[in-house]
Amino acid sequence: MHWIAIILTTAVLTLILYWLLITTEGVYLGRRIVVWLYDITAHKYDGIKEFDAEAEHFFLIRPLLVRLRRVPNPLVLDVATGTGRLPHFLLEAPTFNGRIIGLDASEKMLKLANEKLRPYGHRASLVQQVADQLPFPNNQFDLITCLEALEFFPSDTAALQEMIRVLKPGGTLLVTRRKGREGKAFIGRYRTVQQFEAHLRQLGLEDVHTNPWQTDYDQVFSRKPA
Length: 226
Description:
Layout: H1 2-23, H2 31-41, H3 45-49, H4 53-67, E1 75-79, H5 85-92, E2 99-104, H6 107-117, E3 124-128, E4 141-146, H7 156-166, E5 167-178, H8 180-184, H9 193-202, E6 206-212, E7 217-223
Parallel strand pairs: 1-2, 1-4, 2-3, 4-5
Antiparallel strand pairs: 5-7, 6-7
């Protein structure tokens, strides 16, 4: 019986650690742990994600370009840019003639992003900062994106409020909503489609709508009132 108790206790502790460090990527342990986990996995991040260029352009970049079609020389902010995924694919699009700033708290992720974005020169720049303390003035950006990251911030509401603050009136916000079994694993932080859309409206956004995207994520578009 003693050994059974030890085995059961070990199994439970292992599951808890997996939930804390893998499933929820340290969010319940604090921001420093989250950033540290991204720092130590930065070198293999793109390999884990296996981004497909064709899918990225069709499902991500093309909808953004449609929303920017009437904006001359748009200024874009990508919050939690990681290794520069969105800036790279957006700048690669022939019809995008603007500039983009990628922001992330992980120094090692930004180093990889810098290498990826170097060919684009002054059209791409990177900032190391957290999402709930954006170092930009009000009403600055035509488009703000935040992909696969909201659930890992200490407060998704505080981060969203900052993004809305620096978004121009009439500008577009694209964020993602974690869904499915792993989404529900974020205890106390998970929102259904209806709850998430209502939350964005409560923060002052309009034209809120959700698009199915990946197995674990929806895209959620909204607009800051003009």
